[in-house]
Write a structure and sequence with these properties.
72% helix; mainly alpha
């Protein structure tokens, strides 16, 4: 009597084998030494920024951050001025960044996961041509699309209501959410589609035999298996949106009420070019959230990157 391996276990085994193979190749002494050197070079500027953010204003302007070790002096005045100062008030812009980033990550993931399922497991006329067209949209520079897209927001065709207002150069949060979603969808659909195609077809067929429809297959089978790929793309999208300046500045219309932290930091850099103590504190405030998100989801990161490397 012969036994067959369940499709989910087979998929897990192939992914684990690919991860083990990658680990073996990257665990040589030279690879470890190279990784340490890169990590040190990457961390030193961040360490300098962190130390400068706690140094008094006179020390920051008078000497380099490395002199902190010979003459340590620590103050919280920089963070207090940045977060609660009347002329900086980064706390409000920090909240704006959160309001912009979370929907700009969740909306494209939701739409892309459903589109990826349709391209991978639903048959309809022109599926391959449409998928190639979606993939080709990745090569279109964002800068080329900004003026046409902003024109549509202000004066949409077919008599539709304006998103941004007839006289406003930009709108509220919704125009920024929509823009980030548009720019993220091609890559998101491509990555999630490639991962979804690696799921064994026997698993889907067995669910159909049991009477499951597309909605049940997508929700109960695909989404749990797609967690590594979704998390990997979510990290990329979160970092892109959180650190974005151009999209928020253009489609927010320069309105400070909907501007993220990056817009305010750019203004501080321009109007307060000598106030390095405030810039360092503000930059580190902006750095904390992406760092926490990456460290929290890093266990999914490698699994998501290896998702499309396993061929059945």
């Amino acid at each position: 009597m012969t036994t067959t391996t369940p499709p989910t276990l087979a998929l897990t085994g192939r992914v684990s084998a690919a991860a083990d193979d990658a680990h073996d190749k990257l665990s040589s002494p030279w690879a470890s030494l190279t990784a340490v050197v890169i990590a040190v070079l990457w961390t030193v500027p961040t360490l300098g920024l962190f130390i400068s953010s706690f140094r008094p204003e006179d020390d920051v302007k008078g000497s380099g951050w490395w002199t902190f070790f010979s003459n340590p002096a620590v103050t919280l005045d920089n963070y207090e001025s940045v977060l609660t100062g009347s002329d900086t008030d980064l706390a409000t812009f920090f909240l704006n960044s959160i309001v912009i980033t979370i929907p700009s990550v969740l909306i494209p993931i939701t739409l892309a996961s459903m589109a990826a399922y349709a391209f991978a497991w639903m048959k309809f006329p022109g599926r391959n041509v449409l998928f190639v067209a979606v993939f080709a949209m990745q090569i279109v520079p964002i800068q080329v699309t900004m003026i046409p897209l902003l024109s549509i927001y202000v004066s949409p065709p077919f008599g539709l209501p304006s998103l941004a207002g007839s006289e406003a150069p930009g709108g509220g949060f919704y125009t920024i959410w929509l823009s980030h979603t548009i720019f993220a969808l091609p890559l998101a659909i491509y990555l999630l589609h490639n991962f979804m195609r690696e799921i064994p077809g026997e698993l889907v067929e067995s669910a159909r035999v049991d009477g499951a429809g597309h909605v049940q297959i997508f929700v109960r089978i695909m989404l749990p298996l797609m967690t590594p790929a979704i998390a990997a793309f979510g990290i990329f999208q979160f970092l892109w949106v959180w650190n974005d300046l151009l999209v928020a500045l253009v489609f927010g219309g320069g309105n400070l009420d909907v501007s993220p932290l990056t817009v305010r930091l750019a203004e501080l850099s321009g109007t307060r070019g000598a106030d390095w103590h405030l810039l360092s504190a503000g930059a580190f405030v902006s750095l904390v959230v992406p760092l926490v998100v990456f460290l929290s989801l890093q266990r999914f990161f490698l699994r998501g990157l290896l998702a499309g490397s396993v061929k059945g």
